[in-house]
Design brief:
The protein is 73% helix and 2% strand. The chain has 14 helices and 2 strands. The chain is globular, with a radius of gyration of 28 Å.
């Protein structure tokens, strides 16, 4: 009995044939394929993102006529010199001071929890902690800010809790302190600092936890075997190796606090921040050049901060 004759493959449709030829052509030219894949995101990043940013910086040199409220393309340094006026400089220093305070507080609060998540928590508990840290990030930012105005107001949760502990007098004394105090927690700098720290804390915990997890366990054991006390092991082994993660987290907490304009409007005393100043200048006054000059402040600060973070190896912890 003879074997059945092999069935000839069905001819490809013209469109399928062209696609297969194109696929084969791109497969044999990997560099061209990679270039075609990268062109759209590079165009978007280079033209749309960086282009709009450069246009913003360029417009910060335009001239604003206070009488006609018109913006003309006459280049001037007056907007940047205006940043040195005492009122504007106070806005910049207030914003930078808050960003630094929030960054330090987030680092102090995040490190113990990050260490526990990296070294002790496992299985379901570790997953629960991850979800607990990220859960506030999934909620609406504005809803959280509004919720904190209720929590910090007189009659709110914080006042009720301090009253239950008999600490109302201590809280009122803190609110009488200059700079940090106010008529209530919701209208004080302390309350604004608490809300900033709450909102940006997850951005510090996750990079720090990742950095601690990458520290080899045998280094800590070797330090203990050589007679180092726990605090010495922390200062000389764990903290230096995990520090790039803290710096990586601080990039988020510092830059996000610098540019925020919602929390300063909802919580705290009426002093302006850089974000609220930009919002006011471009929305109510129409002084776009000065608003752009204010925007250049966080851009310059964050650029310098990123350069420092790169030298500290923070990008390896992201």
């Amino acid at each position: 009995m003879s074997a059945p004759a092999a069935t000839a493959p069905a001819p490809l449709a013209p469109a399928a044939g062209r696609l297969r030829s194109l696929s084969t052509f791109l497969y044999r030219r990997g560099t061209l394929t990679l270039l075609l894949l990268l062109v759209p995101p590079l165009l978007w990043f280079g033209v749309v993102y960086l282009g709009s940013l450069l246009a913003l910086v360029w417009q910060s040199s335009y001239t604003f006529d206070d009488f006609t409220m018109a913006v003309t393309p006459d280049l001037t340094w007056a907007n940047y010199l205006a940043l040195l006026d005492p009122a504007n400089l106070d806005v910049v220093l207030r914003t930078v001071g808050m960003a630094l305070a929030v960054t330090v507080a987030c680092a102090v609060l995040a490190f113990p929890l990050a260490y526990y998540m990296a070294r002790h928590a496992s299985g379901g508990l570790k997953g629960f902690l991850y979800v607990a840290v990220m859960l506030p990030m999934w909620a609406s930012y504005i809803v959280k800010a509004y919720a904190w105005t209720v929590i910090l107001a007189r009659g709110g949760v914080v006042y009720w809790f301090t009253g239950a502990l008999g600490l109302t007098g201590a809280l009122e004394w803190v609110l009488t302190l200059p700079v940090v105090g106010g008529s209530s927690l919701s209208t004080s700098t302390l309350g604004r600092f608490l809300v900033f720290t709450y909102v940006w804390l997850p951005f510090m915990i996750l990079p720090t936890q990742a950095a601690i997890e990458r520290v080899p366990e045998n280094l800590l054991q070797a330090s203990a075997d050589l007679g180092a006390r726990p605090d010495q092991t922390f200062r000389t082994v764990l903290l230096p190796l995990a520090f790039p993660g803290v710096v990586a987290g601080s990039i988020f907490t510092f830059s996000l606090t610098l540019g925020d304009y919602i929390i300063p409007q909802l919580v705290g005393p009426p002093g302006l921040f850089v974000g609220t100043m930009v919002y006011t200048l471009q929305g109510s006054v129409g002084n776009l050049p000065l608003a752009a000059a204010f925007t250049a402040v966080p851009i310059a600060l964050v650029a310098a901060y990123l350069a420092l973070a790169r030298r500290l190896g923070a990008f390896d912890a992201l």
